[in-house]
Amino acid sequence: MNKEYYGKLIYELSRKGRKGADIPANGCEESLSAIPSSLLRSNDAVLPEVDEPTVVRHYTNMSNNNFGVDTGFYPLGSCTMKYNPKINEEAAAHPTMASMHPATPASAAQGALEAYWTLQKALCEIGGMAAFTLNPFAGAHGELTGLMVIRAYHESRGDEKRTKVIVPDSAHGTNPASAAVAGLKVVEVKSLADGTVDVDALAALLDDTVAGVMMTNPNTAGLFESNVARIADMVHKAGGLMYYDGANLNPMLGVARPGDMGFDVMHINLHKTFSTPHGGGGPGSGPVGVREGLEKFLPNPKVVKLSDSSFDIVTRSDALGSISATLGNFGVQLRALSYILSLGKDGLMEAGKLATLNANYIKESLRDLYKLPIDKICKHEFVFDGLADKSTGVTTLNVAKRLLDYGFHAPTIYFPLLFHESLMIEPTETESKETLDNFIETMRKIAREAAETPEIVKEAPLTTPVRRPDDTAAALNPVVKWRDLTKSDAE
Ligand SMILES: *Cc1c(COP(=O)(O)O)cnc(C)c1O
Fold it and tell me: Which atom of ligand 1 is found nearest the CA of 140?
């Protein structure tokens, strides 16, 4: 990295009078008088003054500071940072798809509607559901939509007192948040020491105010909830519905279907399981599936098939309304469809099994040096409770920071909240044995360093542009715009 640009803001590279483009006079000066002076700037905007090579180098150098699945191993648990095949990008970038206007009439968008309909059908098959909407823009948005379906179902039966949603304590934070946004009351159910839902504690919460139970299976600790059929039975007997958080459907692909486990409503994160690049807040897509009998509540607009090769966009009065202005995040849908079609049924089944194998391989290769709180076969991910040897004072945060020095993205840390030193690893199916072995060797090396030279691990990262920002100060006092620190704010 060139030090001239390293760690600098574009404003700091600015030199008075320097420019990279000639902009023709716009001829608007005269019309300025038509704008009230109270709305006009009194001073020129402070913009960086830079030449073209500086702009290009600044942004290119900055992009090189990014870490992504295309640069290295990214074992961030619960996020499924799998490699995203480039053929998906080609499909999404195809001009006939990428340049389509969202308001194109159905008659001129038959191919796009067929893509929507085909993906929706594939997800029905994968999830064991009767119908899917692809309209929600993220996992959390899918949860909100699914909970609105559950509420609409109870209301349609005049069962208005069902406002309670039961959520396990190990659930992703979006679960209770979505339930609250949907106007439902959240009640937490504890997990057992082995990380699975406490069925007796759940039974005690079931009554005629239960709207539904949200479950993640495999759960956040990467464990399959083997009591799920019994739980579904109990919840249905109590009049509630079962909601499946399928953000990380990876290990279930072609092996087990939420619909067959007794779930009534589910969402899938296309940007995790179905290989769309994600992170930093987008782009996402959280399709919602429902079992037979609940289809009518799915949001408008809906895509319907009229004949073999003819599709339409419809708005129905018995739907729960709209949750998006359009038919969702089309680019992400195309990537998912491309991924599903290129892997095919056998390929999808292989992906889930490999993700499971890879997670167990790492877990078994490190369990002598890292504390394994739940000794079970995991699915696509698992959780360590920090280093096995706690006497060195080296924490999970230190291990995660040290991994950055060795060129790896850190695993998810301090989540789930079930353990004090959670270190949650999800390798995904797309990594080679060499990459997994390299990661394992590095984790073993860090454990050795923790014993021999703990101060190095505690001070890590030593090689990154930014070392240890003060997370608390950054959250309490965020500085999100450039400020010339040599001047006071009053100037
Ligand atoms: C990522 C995730 C979500 C939320 O998905 P977003 O697209 O980030 O809103 C929900 N549940 C689980 C289990 C997840 O891993």
Answer: 9
